Amino acid sequence: MEHVSVELRELLSAIYRTIPVKKGMYLFQEGEKADELYYIQSGKIQISKTNMDGQELTLRICSQGDLIGELTLFCPGARYMLTAKALEDSVVSAIPREVIEKELSDNPKLAIEFMKWMSLHFRKTQTKFRDLILHGKKGALYSTLIRLCNSYGVMKEDGILIDIPLTNQELANFCGTAREVVNRMLGDLRKKGVISVQKGKIRVHNLQYLRDEIACEGCPPELCSID
């Protein structure tokens, strides 16, 4: 949470109830009663939405210092709108929803900081939907690769290594499409020399090609990220 104040970070990082979450376990699922928010101490948590056909759309990957479940604040009878699943063994702190609501109600400065942080997340989500709507499945995949480079990219002599292992199905979930479609598009990119795959990790050799193909607007890294 690089963009929040020290005061807000201290509130969210206070230990209330620590929960270990094994890889593949759900922290919460869409529709469940929301009594707590969760602050990630370590690990990675995937946030996703499932449509009426059961297709999963991954919205972001959260890591150390992120708060999840925040959309339930100040909503009577709140239920989780999204699903949170651990991508790796993780540790989170569970914070009662009413604790944060009270702190935000009593401290206007803190509330403003929280609103700024929420606004940033909404803007990130809007840009992801923009790419999917304007450029279809190709735009969704290419923009996902660009965001992964910004979030997990490591510069190498021959390109940018996306230093997080993702299956083609997990990439497909980011794009709201089938794994077979992603397989074909990744195959085309490999043939063109735009990417390569080594030990389950993608290396992007021509980032500019991806940007040009979706008419990238050059959004700042804080917006163009996968977290």
Automatic annotation (TrEMBL):
Keywords: Activator, DNA-binding, Transcription, Transcription regulation. Transmembrane segments: none annotated. One of its GO terms (cellular component) is cytosol. Residues 135-208 form the HTH crp-type domain. GO terms for molecular function: DNA binding; DNA-binding transcription factor activity. The keyword Metal-binding does not apply. This is Transcription regulator Crp family. It comes from the Bacteria. Pfam families: cNMP_binding (PF00027), HTH_Crp_2 (PF13545). Residues 7-104 form the Cyclic nucleotide-binding domain. PROSITE patterns: CNMP_BINDING_3, HTH_CRP_2. The keyword Hydrolase does not apply.
